[in-house]
Amino acid sequence: MGEREVVVAGGDGSIHAVVQALHDRGGLDGRTLGLVPLGTGNDFARTLGIPLEAAEAAQVVVDGTPRPTDLVVDDRDRVTVNSVHLGAGAEAGKYGARWKKRLGKIGYPIGAVQTALNPPVLRLRVEVDGEVVVDVDKGVLMVAVGNGASVGGGTESTPDADPHDGLVDVLVATPDRTLARLGYALRLPFARHGEHRDVAMVRGRAVRVTGTPFDCNSDGEIDGPVGARTWRVLPAAYSMVVPLS
Q1: Phi, psi at residue 21, to the nearest 5°?
Q2: Residue (of 43, 41, 140) closest to 83 by Cα position
């Protein structure tokens, strides 16, 4: 059964749901998935280099090659295929989801603007592989745990993330003043936010966040608030069909 290929026609939420179902039934190991991106953002397809045009993506399913792909799993055994966000990222996703139903992809930047007007500031302890990246003495605007590079239809929050390297890229943003937050927000669409002095970008295999209750946005699925959550990487948990290099 694990050798049968499953083709998902949909966006990040669809691939998330299929991978979760297979993970729950123990049917993910050895499985190969193809993806025809028919969603709004299609961020995981972007990371994998899969064409966003349906006919071209379907041809990749036929002619492409399976590549072992990592999976992120939390302490409740819930999966993240592409990316999980806390703080401003989760809030922007929540607002954006409301607009997305009516306006499509443009709903993402509208959600970001609404969040920027009144951003949440959390007191969190963020640990990556046991090392403290930030502690509760500093306000946190946003945390991202990226298996893929982008969210929101192409905003590269973790631009160097690679779902084949056995690691996640972790972004922690701590700008504490209005101008600093504005500078961070202006850099984000151009993937230059890592240059901001109040941003830490690290890599690891396990991430633990504790502190102020926070929501989690995992591949567009909102969960929370919770006071603690841990994520770990399962390297090469399954395979995705990607274009021939």
Answers
A1: -60, -45
A2: 43
List, in sequence order, every beta strand (DSSP E) within 154-205: 168-173, 199-204
How many whole angstroms from its chain centre is CA 87?
13
pLDDT in tens, 118-157: 667 899 999 999 999 999 999 898 899 999 999 888 888 8
The whole model's pTM is what?
Answer: 0.84
CA–CA distance, 242 with 130 (Å, rounded to integer)? 33
Q: In this structure, which amino acid lies at residue 139?
A: G
Choose among 21, 40, 22: nearest CA to 102: 40
64 vs 194: CA distance, rounded Å = 33
The whole-angstrom separation of Cα 111 and Cα 209 is: 24
Between CA 222 and CA 215 the distance in angstroms is 7
The average pLDDT across 188-217 equals 82
The whole-angstrom distance between residue 42's C-alpha and the CA centroid of its chain comes to 11
Distance between CA 8 and CA 73 in Å, rounded? 20
Given phi > 0 = left and psi -120 to 50 = alpha, else beta, which region is 153? left
102 burial via Cβ count (<10 Å: 0-12, 13-18, 19+):
exposed
Give the integer Cα–Cα distance in Å for 10 and 182.
34
Strands (E) across the chain are located at 5-10, 32-37, 65-74, 79-80, 83-87, 122-128, 131-134, 139-140, 142-146, 168-173, 199-204, 206-218, 221-242
Provide the 3-class DSSP secondary structure of residue 1: coil
